[in-house]
Amino acid sequence: MRGVEEHGGDWPRLVAAGWDPDRILDLSASVNRYGPGPAVESAWPALVRTLGRYPDRAAGRLRDALARHLAVPPAAVLPVAGATAALDLLVAGHPGWPVFAPPPGFGEYAGAARRGRSAFTWTDAPPDRPGIAFLANPQSPTGTLLPGATLDAWREWARRTGGVLAVDESFLEFLPDWASRTLAAEAATGALYVVGSLTKFYGLAALRVGYVVGRPDRVAALAELVPPWSLGGVAEAAAVAALGDQAFFAETRTRIRADWQALRAALAVRGGTFWPDAVPLNFLLVRLPEPPAAVAARLARRGILVRTTDSFFGPASPWIRIAVPRPDELGRLTEALDHPS
After folding, report:
1. Which of 241, 243, 247, 281 has the alpha carbon at shortest distance from 264?
2. Order of strands across the sheet with 132-136?
């Protein structure tokens, strides 16, 4: 497995090739295709008038909104400029500690270690020494839930070695039972950290909003390492509006689940096979009869981006990760798959 920090959302490549950004169908980044919702859209014009104001250093409104949403004390939550910033912050808060993560996983786990000048190792089992461990639940790109036995083994590793366990829940809210699955309450007691993102489910990728949940004294120590005004006021306001729009997002959660099933069915009749035990999230890992690079290149010529997975599995990976399109977008994808250009 390669330690390359690749990511979806490379639409500027198609813009440079002459594509109209509004005509690009970006299924390489696993962002909610239904957008940030009416509350954010209605607030947007007024936010222009706030551009001359410095943001709240503590992002207090967002901290309180996240605390209510996650059912933890406000002092246990630290808003940051995206989940990647949260990973960097945890590495910076433990200088020199090695970083571990089970494969396959988000390339930025390795990236955070590199930026923090720490050693990084992909490992299936907890090591014999302390460090920082990043585990994802659900996992990307597989779309599977973290097995309880795996989580328990890493909990025991943290207890035995004094290591730091951080669970990345960036995709968790796509699940209808996410509130019973989140480990935020456990994180608030100090047993581990939770890293979260409002990029994916809430459709705020351009604004970069994430958070860390941990024991209040540990969160306060991490907050000392955050540069002033690193989370912009527009990002904070949009995130607060999105979190307050739960009726809309409950509806989109139901829609995305149906859209995931429709995408899976459409790919199955075109020879697709799927990662076992994947749950309906906003992406699907599929193996198609055609090599991934050829599929991705052919779709890109039609203005559609998908994600090859060599950065997760190595250059011989047969898998493609496809974000779940809306019903009005699925036909464009299947037409492009059926008609080579």
Report:
1. 281
2. 77-80, 210-213, 193-197, 164-168, 132-136, 99-101, 120-122
DSSP secondary structure, 124-159, as one string: SS--SS--EEEEESS-TTT--PPPHHHHHHHHHHHH
Token pair for residue 305? 């981006």
Q: Per residue in 83-94, is it b (16+ CB within 10 Å) or e — as a string?
A: bbbbbbbbbbbb
User: What is the mean pLDDT of the segment spanning 261-284?
Assistant: 97
Task: Supply the DSSP symbol for 226.
Answer: S
Strands (E) in the chain, as ranges, are 25-26, 77-80, 99-101, 120-122, 132-136, 164-168, 193-197, 210-213, 273-274, 283-287, 304-305, 307-308, 319-323
Q: What is the pLDDT of residues 93-150, one digit of tens each?
A: 999 999 999 999 899 999 999 999 999 999 999 999 999 999 999 999 999 999 999 9
Classify 11-35+247-338 by CATH class: alpha beta
- Residue 333, CB half-sphere, CA atoms under 13 Å: how many? 23
Q: Environment class of residue 181 by beta-carbon count within 10 Å: exposed (0-12), middle (13-18) or buried (19+)?
A: middle
pLDDT at residue 17 in the model: 78
Q: Which residues pair with 133 in a beta bridge?
A: 100, 165
Cβ within 8 Å of residue 173, ≥6 positions away: 200, 201, 202, 249, 253
Domain 38-244 indexed as CATH 3.40.640.10: yes
Average confidence (pLDDT) over 16-20: 81
| Residue spans in the chain of domains classed CATH 3.40.640.10 | 38-244
In a 3-state reduction of DSSP, which class is residue 245? coil
Q: Within the chain, which residue ranges are assigned CATH 3.90.1150.10?
A: 11-35+247-338
> Residue 4 pLDDT > 70, yes or no?
no
Residue 315 has pLDDT above 80, yes or no: yes
How far apart are the two ends of the chain, measured CA to CA in Å?
A: 32
Rg (CA), the chain: 20
